[in-house]
Design goal:
Length: 185
């Protein structure tokens, strides 16, 4: 626990480092990042998983691969990119220790149930599905909020309804609420 707090303090001002610490990503983990909207986060994860692990980003938007590649090179990290839709992941089932949805469920709109099902399919038994949901911005910035917001109870209910266990809200930090749930063994 002390190590996590130390990493969070060290990562202040660098939200991707805080996310890595909050989600407990370790060297040797195999991590799938579903969506390339935060290439710095994918690079930070790749820097932690290192040579013994694997970080894979899946996205099918224009220019996503170039953004992820630049961020990984800048961080000195190994990150694999796969061009594919999030609703049809081209990976074998039960492959990853952690599947991360960095944009959250609300941002996925009507595709959220399908993307969550795919995340569960590719996470190994006992592995985790992690979700980052944006929080409302404080003060007048709240009026400019463009990302859809979700109640934490709703996120936990959706994870549980999808068949995951031990769904919980890990906490909130730097404008993001972090959630995780485990796939049954």
């Amino acid at each position: 626990m002390f190590t996590i707090l130390k990493m969070i303090r060290k990562g202040q001002g660098r939200p991707e480092q805080s996310a890595v610490a909050m989600l407990g990503i370790r060297g040797g983990d195999t991590v799938l990042v579903a969506g390339a909207g935060q290439p710095g986060l994918a690079a930070a994860i790749g820097a932690v998983t290192g040579l013994n692990g694997q970080t894979t980003v899946v996205d099918n938007t224009e220019g996503a691969e170039a953004r992820v590649t630049r961020a990984a090179e800048k961080a000195g990290a190994l990150v694999e990119f796969v061009h594919a839709p999030l609703a049809m992941l081209p990976m074998d089932g039960q492959t990853f220790d952690i599947v991360m949805l960095p944009a959250g469920l609300a941002a996925l709109g009507p595709q959220a149930p399908t993307v969550l099902s795919e995340a569960i399919r590719v996470v190994r038994p006992g592995g985790r599905v992690a979700i980052c949901e944006p929080l409302p911005r404080p003060g007048l910035f709240r009026l400019a909020q463009t990302a859809p917001l979700t109640d934490p109870k709703d996120v936990i209910a959706r994870l549980t309804a999808a068949g995951l266990r031990a769904a919980r809200h890990l906490g909130s930090l730097e404008g993001v609420a972090y959630f995780e749930a485990a796939r049954a063994r």
